[in-house]
Amino acid sequence: MKNSVRIKVDSAGFRYPSERKLVFENLSFSVEEGEVLFLLGPNGTGKSTLLKTIMGFLIPERGRITLDGEETAKIPPPLMAKKIAYVPQSQVSPFPFRVKDIVLMGRSAHLDPFAMPGRRDEKAAWEAMKQTGILHLAERRCDSVSGGEWQLVLIARALTQAADILLLDEPTSHLDLGNQMKVLDVIGDLAERGITIVIATHFPDHALLHASTVAIIREAHMLGYGSPEETIKPEILKAAYGIEVHIADLSETLGRKICIPLSPKGGRIRSPKEDSREKILIKGGDYDS
Amino acid sequence: MKKAICLFLLFLMPLGLVFGTGSRESAVSPASETPSTRVVKDMLGNEIVLPAKGATYAVFGGPVSQIPAILGVSDSVVAVTKGAQMMELMRLVDPTIVNKPAPRSTSGNVNVEELLLSDPDCVISFDTDGNIVKNQTSIPVIFLEGGDMSVTIDEMKEEVRFFGKVFDAEERAEVFVRFLEKTVAMLEKRLSGLPADKQKRVFIGEGPAHLATLGGDTFITHWLKAAGLKNAVLDIQTTTEHQEGLHSGFLEISMEQVIKSNPDIIIIDTGKSEEIYDSPRWQGIKAVQNKQVYNIPCGIFLWTRPSAESVVLYPVWLAVKAYPELFSDFSMVDFMKDFYKTVFNYEISDENAERVIQSKMGKVVFSQIDRKP
Amino acid sequence: MEVSQSRRSKSILIALFILLILSMLVAMSVGRYQVPIKKILLVLESRIFGTPLKVEERIATVILNVRLPRIIAGFLVGAGLAVSGAAFQAIFKNPLVSSQILGVASGAGFGAAIAILLSESLVLVQISSFFFGLLSVFMTYMLSRVRKKAPILMLVLSGIVVSSLFSALTSMTKYIADPLNKMPAITFWLLGSLNHIAKKDLYVLGPIMLAAMATIFILRWRINLLTMGDEEARSMGVRSERLKGIIIICATLITAASVCLCGIIGWIGLVIPHLGRLLVGPDNRNLIPVSVLVGGSFLIIVDCIARTASSSEIPIGVLTAIIGAPLFAILLRRNRREL
To answer: Which chains touch C (3 or more CB pairs under 8 A)?
Structure first.
């Protein structure tokens, strides 16, 4: 039984020094090796903050957050970088580095402070770019790539760190459909290789695709924690996001369940102009009707 | 609407106070003398009316501040120049100067309020300060001209004579002029046997790096000539441009140029000559090899500016340093005592005379006198 | 993986190195004191091989004690300020800063001013300016500390405060100094000039500057990571605070030493890295060496002009701007697209 606990969050609470309100409070959960944890919750619940405390950037006010038994804020960065890679929601660099040089930065975890990246590191960067499908962007200046492409660059950079835990902060937020799937595929591959993954995301549907565990946070507290089946349920999601969702079991055709958000007002199929009076109403998100 | 107009007028009132206050109009018609006034012409040709007796003056300018002491009219000077006021020997020669208001520090820096408090009948100054006084007060200005770093010896005579006219003390002015001429003649006589090619070359090296110099177009060339010496950088013009941070007339030249000019004597104004003797950059120069690097003396004012004191004493001091063999029977101290007594009516002690030559007379640092080692 | 871009960078580096050597040779042979090349070689020969001098002592003095130290100082200061500027631009994630942002130049200027006021010794002036340069950055750092870290914004603000403080103190010093001697001396000193360089200045300050530059040089790839921000750099294994601290100390040493050697020379730390970026991009693996070469050559060439163009020394701070600005403008126009 190799599933040892890697990350343990123990009654953790965090508050920014200048604020009164706690960003999150009394959170307890653990992430085992090989687990794929999806963090869900509305904007501003502190998913990013939670990730940062796990990374050791921030120190929890209450409770403890440990990695392999040690408090994350106390682990020296060089050691940390070998264990966890982090994909932030990041602004593009103020300097026009080339994409390949940005990706190469991830290799610093494996280099001495005074060393320069060499062949091996460049190869790792190349592999990472291939895996994320951005090889064709390698020579491009990073200020000329789109927001979505930039996200893929950051993921590639995290991959070069060759860590066995990966934290991603809303990695699919700016991506088009194709790229979303690409990222999810990469995540899927990594999960299969046994990489431990924690993702903060807005898309419950993606959780259904790859998650082994889901945590739903709202207003500083955990609303739900458990397997996707247990947590991605209409009641819980309505409590979290304030809207209705429809969960359909398409195991026969697609091999998975899907989760679609429903607008409270229902939808309308808009017909072409000649037939403007005819509008077909679609059922609203109210199960009881 | 009415409210608006009232408010508007209210705002205009202070303006009226400022502009409406009458100021004494300067005389447009040609000045005429009356029994209680006299007319003085300044160097620009303007005519200024002064009280015939008991006129009071403000004197702006470093080197010229000593002239009232020469003329014996220090009592009539009610506002002085700060730099001059701070010099130790100036305070000994004219003890009253300490307590007088000093509205002018450097050229262009005039504290107008202080000047108005002292209430002089006129201000004697050069154009920069004079224009400030003219624009902001109604005190008549007696404009000086020239007096910059390129004056000649004759122009120095004229400057003192001019002051003599202004202060109505022309005889005392002539005392100075005679002494100056006597000195020039004395030097000429002693140096008569000196062939032109044996004339030594002098480099003035001021500033901490000893590289700020006075070029061929400055007064020093004439002072040196009177002393049988040549300016080592005769070909360099230093009055044409102005380097910020340096007094006008001075320009910093490169070390190479000094080496190239290879002077026989170097005059410095700060630091010790040992610095130059020990410095690798100054090796090979004649003045260094012959150990002829000297600190410039300082008396009533810096000798390195064209003043009445400097035009008499500086060439003599230089000549003695350069050609000691021609001045073996000459006592610089005695000469100085004669000068200060005759021209400034001041008996300088032997000790103080020595201190002047050794550059140990108090100069200006901070706003207090520094008795330098 | 040998892409044309890295080959291009290599050839640029080689070309710039040749430029540096050439500028040094030119600087050796020009000057107001005309020395024929032959005599220059004789002087150098006797110096290197220890053989007796075959020319006048004065000529040897010009070559070895005046020009050579000037050239070395020009290289050190030009390269040093450029490298410091590049490193600071990375730390502050802003291409518009120079190493003076933390107040080192103002502090060093004040140190010089107060020493000029109170003493006659040039050595004391240098020691004082160096000391106050370091002190001012220390003050900036202490002022900016928030819970053991020094966030960028706080550093910048503290730097402004400390700079202003020392500038004001310098002005005060000039005000109370006597207007005839000291005040002009202070103003002139602050203007910047390589005219006062003596060999012994270089013996002490040279190694310091070289050591600091070498440190930044070795760390140049890591500095790239700092441009992504403290958190991201940390996530990649960089001890941000420590690295920033080392860079700041090195850059401060370099800048303080530069002010000590030759007064305040602006422009270089700000613009040479820009020029470098236009040539080889922002990757500090290339940018740092390019800054060294371009900064060094630039100051050496400008200094040649400063001491030969007219019969008096032109203040070098003025020249670096007058020459640098049009040059920079031309390059900007050429590379409009890239920006």
So the answer is: A, B
